[in-house]
Amino acid sequence: MQITIAQIIAHAIYDAGARVVTHVPGVGGTEIFAAFCEISPETHQRSFHEEVAYSIAHGASLVGQRSATLIKAHGLAKAANSVINSLSAGTTAGFVGLVFDDRLAKHSDSIFNVAVLLQGLGIPYRRLQMKDAYWEVQDAFTWSEALQLPVALLIDTDNLGEMETYTPVQSGASSRNYQRDVTQHVVGPFFPEYQRQVLDAKLTGQNWRILKRPTLPTIPDTLPKVSQPLARLYMPLFAVFQKLRGDIVTGDTSTSTLFAFPPYHCIDVCTYIGGSIPLAIGAYLAGYENTWALTGDFSFIAAGHLGLIEAIQRNIPMKVLIFNNGKAQATGGQPVPTGVLERILMGYEPYLRHIHNPQDASEIETVLQEASQAQEMRIVVADYREG
Question: Which residues are registered as beta bridge partners of 373?
C-alpha cells in the first residue's frame, strides 16, 4: 500500500504499541499526529505546551506504557527542563520524542541547529532516514527500552509528503511491568550522584544495576536538619494521605516530595518543579486511573497549572494536593505574592476543596476521603500559611 511518509510514521508509532501520544501543533508533527488519530481507536488531544506534552508521555513510559511525543525543534527548547530530568529518572517502557527540524525556517520563527541542542541536553538521538522511516521508528522504541532512557528521532520536515510502501508489522509487547524505585524515579536534591552514575552507565552500555544504591532517609530524623521542621509540620497530613494515596502519586522537587521516603512511601515519581500534574496525567492515560499529583504553591504557579489545562480537556478526574505555605520553600523561602494562587484557581472553583487546619486529622481525612472518592477532578489546597 502506497501512503505518505507522514502516514507511515504514524502507522509505525501505532504498530509499535504506543498508546499515549502527545503533540503540540507544528509543521511535520501535525501531519503525523492527524494520521495517527485516524488509525487509533482512542481519542488523543493536542497539547498547548511542549514541556507538558513531553512530561505526559514520559509519565506514561515511567509506569510501563510505550509513548511518544511529537514536537517541533523550537518546542524541544521549551521542554528542555523535563528532557534533562527525564534522563535522570529513566523510563520503564519505550519513550520516543519525534523532533521536527524545519531547517530553513519555512514555518518557524528562526533557524537554529537543533542537533546541537540535542547533544547539549544529552538525550540519545538519531536523524531519521526517510526511506527506512517505518523500521527506524519501530527500532527507536526498542532502543529506548534497551537503554531504559528516552530517545529522540530528528525528522526533516521537507519530505514527509513523499509516497512510500507501507507493510504493517506489530512489534510485540507494548507495555512493561512498573516497579516503584524512588532512588531512580524521584529526581531532586536527594540522589543526584547516583542517578548520574546510572545515566552514564546506561549511555555507555554498562550494567547500571550493580551500582550501590543510596540509603533512603527516614522522615523526619535522618533528613537534613534544614528540612526537618517543615517535614514535621507536614507529617499529620501524610499520616492520613498514606492510607488514601491510590495507585501512583507524583510530586514536584519540593519539600512534600521528601515523603517519598520511609515510613510514609507517599510519592513514586518526581522530575521537576511543576511536573507532578502532567506526570500524573501520563500515568492515568497509561491505565493507572487512581492518581494523585502533589505540588507546592510556588511550583503550581510556576508551571503546574499548565498541566491542569490538559487534565480538563481530557476530562481526567485526577486529584491534586497543593501545599500552600506562601513561600518558595525549596529555593530559600521567597514569599509568594498574596492572591496569585487564588487567582489562578478561580477558574477551577467547582473542583476546589480546602484543608483549613492541616494539623487536624479529622478535617484532613474528611477532605481527602471525599476527594479520593470523587468521580471528577479534585484540587485540595492545604493551608500552611502563617497567621
Answer: none
Range of the domain at 21: 2-165
pLDDT of amino acid 58: 98
211's grid cell? 551500582
Q: pTM for the whole thing?
A: 0.96
161 with 221, same domain: the answer is: no
Q: pLDDT tens digit string along 2-49?
A: 899 999 999 999 999 999 999 999 999 999 999 999 999 999 999 999
- CA dihedral in degrees (159, 162, 164, 169; nearest 10)? 50
Q: pLDDT tens digits, residue range 270-304?
A: 999 999 999 999 999 999 999 999 999 999 999 99
Beta-bridge mates of residue 125: 152
Residue 322 lies in a domain: yes
The overall average pLDDT reported for the chain is 94
C-alpha 69: how far from chain center = 11
3-state secondary structure 196-209: HHHHHHHHCCCCHH
329 is a domain residue: yes
Based on the fold, state whether residues 355 and 236 are members of the same structural domain.
Answer: yes
CA distances from 350 to 295, 347, 354 (A): 19, 8, 12
3 state DSSP class of 151? strand
Q: Is the pLDDT of residue 387 over 60?
A: no
Q: Of 48, 47, 49, 67, which is closest to residue 57 (Cα–Cα)?
A: 67
Report yes or no on 205 lying in a domain. no
Contact 67, 46 (CB under 8 A): no
- Whether 161 and 17 map to the same domain: the answer is yes
**C-alpha span between 93 and 154 (Å, rounded):** 20
pLDDT tens readout for residues 301-354: 999 999 999 999 999 999 999 999 987 777 777 888 999 999 999 999 999 999
- Please say whether the dihedral angle defined by the alpha carbons of residues 305, 306, 312 and 317, taken in this order, is positive or negative: negative
Evaluate whether residue 324 is within a structural domain: yes
Q: Say if strands 95-101 and 151-156 run parallel, antiparallel, or are unpaired.
A: parallel
> Is the peptide bond between 263 and the residue preceding it cis, with omega within 30 degrees of 0?
yes
